[in-house]
UniProtKB/TrEMBL annotation:
EC numbers for this chain: 1.17.1.8
Reaction equations catalysed: (S)-2,3,4,5-tetrahydrodipicolinate + NADP(+) + H2O = (2S,4S)-4-hydroxy-2,3,4,5-tetrahydrodipicolinate + NADPH + H(+); (S)-2,3,4,5-tetrahydrodipicolinate + NAD(+) + H2O = (2S,4S)-4-hydroxy-2,3,4,5-tetrahydrodipicolinate + NADH + H(+)
Pathway the protein takes part in: Amino-acid biosynthesis; L-lysine biosynthesis via DAP pathway; (S)-tetrahydrodipicolinate from L-aspartate: step 4/4
InterPro entries: DapB_C (IPR022663), DapB_N (IPR000846), DapB_N_CS (IPR022664), DHDPR_bac (IPR023940), NAD(P)-bd_dom_sf (IPR036291)
Protein name: 4-hydroxy-tetrahydrodipicolinate reductase
SUPFAM superfamilies given in the database record: Glyceraldehyde-3-phosphate dehydrogenase-like, C-terminal domain, NAD(P)-binding Rossmann-fold domains
One Gene Ontology term, aspect cellular component: cytosol
Keyword terms of this UniProt record: Amino-acid biosynthesis, Cytoplasm, Diaminopimelate biosynthesis, Lysine biosynthesis, NAD, NADP, Oxidoreductase
Active-site residues annotated for this sequence: H155 (proton donor/acceptor), K159 (proton donor)
CDD domains: DHDPR_N (cd02274)
Binding residues for NAD(+): G9, A10, R11, G12, K13, M14, E41, G99, T100, T101, A125, P126, N127, F128
Known partners and oligomeric status: Homotetramer.
PANTHER family (UniProt xref): 4-HYDROXY-TETRAHYDRODIPICOLINATE REDUCTASE 1, CHLOROPLASTIC-RELATED, DIHYDRODIPICOLINATE REDUCTASE
Length: 265
C-alpha cells in the first residue's frame, strides 16, 4: 500500500528535507503541501523544488484533505500553528506525524484525548534523530544514580521556541526517575535575570542560540569528584529523516497519540 502524505511547512528547513525524503520513498506519495504563501500554486513552481514536482499548495487544511485525501499529515511548521493543524487533521480522521515543537502541556493533553476519542494515530516527536532518543534514554538511566543534572541545548539562531522540545522532553524523562529538588546553593541569587536558566523541577535548562549550529544537546551530571556528560549533535536535517519515515509508517497502525519516539522504538 502506498501512503498518501501531505506536508505542512514544506518550504522550511525541515519541511523541504521531508519533501525530498517522501518523494524518494517507494512506499509513499506526496499529495499536497500546506502553506500560507504560494496558495493555488504547485511545489514545482518554487525555485527550491524540481520542476516536475507537481504537488498542489493549499492554505485551508480541510480543503486540502477533501481534495487530496492524505493518509498522514506531517507538520513541520511553528509553535503558533501546529496545534490547530494537528487538531483539524484529527477531526478529519487524518493521522499526524508532528515534528514541530512548542506545545503546551494542556494542548498535548487535549490532543491526546481527541486522538483516543477518534481512534486516530498521532505521533508527536520532539526529536526524530535516533541518537537524540538514545541521549534522552541514557540521561534518564544516569539520573537514577546522579540526580544533580543540568541540560544545555544549543541550536541555530532561527529557532522560535526555548527551551527546545528535546530539552523539555529530556527534563520530563529525567523527572520520571528523579525526585524534584532544587540544585545549587540554597541561597543562590541571580544578579542577572536568567543566569541560572529555566527551572524544571529544580533541574536547569540552558538555551544557546548561534548561527552555524543545527541541533545539539549536552546533559551534564555532577557527583562527588566526577562529572558525566551525554552529548548528541545533529549536523544536518538529514539526521532526522529516518525517524520521519519510521513515524509515517508506524502511525498508520496506531489509534492514539504517542508523545516521544522512545515510547514506540
Ligand atoms: N522533531 C524534530 O526532530 C525536529 C523538529 N524541528 C521543529 O520543526 C519545526 C520547523 O523547523 P524548521 O524547518 O527549522 O523551521 P522553518 O522556519 O525553516 O520552517 C517552517 C516552515 O513553516 C512555514 N509556516 C509557518 N506557518 C505556517 C502555517 N500556518 N502553515 C503552513 N506553513 C507554515 C514557514 O513559512 P515562513 O518561513 O514563510 O513563515 C516555513 O516555511 C520547528 O518547530 C522545529 O523546532 C526541527 C528539526 C527537527
Ligand atoms: O528547531 C530545531 O532545529 C529543532 N527542534 C527540535 C527541538 O526543539 O528539540 C528538535 C531538534 O533539536 C531541532
Amino acid at each position: 500500500m502506498t501512503i498518501r502524505v501531505a506536508i505542512a511547512g514544506a518550504r522550511g528547513k525541515m519541511g523541504s528535507e521531508a519533501v525530498k525524503t517522501v518523494c524518494k520513498h517507494e512506499g509513499m506519495v506526496l499529495v499536497a503541501a500546506l502553506d500560507y504563501k504560494h496558495v493555488g500554486e504547485s511545489l514545482s513552481q518554487l525555485e527550491m523544488f524540481p520542476p516536475n514536482l507537481d504537488v498542489p499548495i493549499y492554505t485551508n487544511l480541510s480543503q486540502l484533505i477533501t481534495e487530496t485525501n492524505p493518509d498522514v499529515l506531517i507538520d513541520l511548521t511553528n509553535p503558533h500553528s501546529v496545534y490547530e493543524h494537528t487538531k483539524e487533521a484529527m477531526l478529519h480522521n487524518v493521522r499526524t506525524v508532528v515534528g514541530t515543537t512548542g506545545f503546551t502541556d494542556e494542548q498535548l493533553e487535549e490532543l491526546s484525548l481527541l486522538a483516543r476519542e477518534k481512534k486516530c494515530g498521532c505521533i508527536i516527536a520532539p526529536n526524530f534523530a535516533i541518537g537524540a532518543i538514545l541521549m534522552m534514554k541514557f540521561a534518564k538511566e544516569a539520573a537514577k544514580y546522579l540526580p544533580h543534572v543540568e541540560i544545555i541545548e544549543l541550536h541555530h539562531d532561527r529557532k522560535l521556541d526555548a527551551p527546545s522540545g528535546t530539552g523539555k522532553k529530556t527534563a520530563q524523562m529525567i523527572a520520571e526517575v528523579r525526585e524534584a529538588s532544587k540544585q545549587g546553593h540554597p541561597n543562590e541569587i541571580e544578579t542577572m535575570m536568567g543566569a541560572r536558566g529555566a527551572d524544571f523541577e529544580g533541574m536547569r535548562i540552558h538555551s544557546v542560540r548561534l548561527p552555524g549550529l543545527v541541533a545539539h544537546q549536552e546533559v551534564i551530571f555532577g557527583g562527588d569528584g566526577q562529572m558525566l556528560t551525554i552529548r548528541h549533535d545533529s549536523f544536518n536535517r538529514e539526521s532526522f529523516m529516518s525517524g520521519v519515515v519510521f513515524c509515517v509508517e508506524t502511525v498508520m497502525t496506531m489509534e492514539e497519540l504517542v508523545y516521544g519516539l522512545e515510547n514506540i522504538l
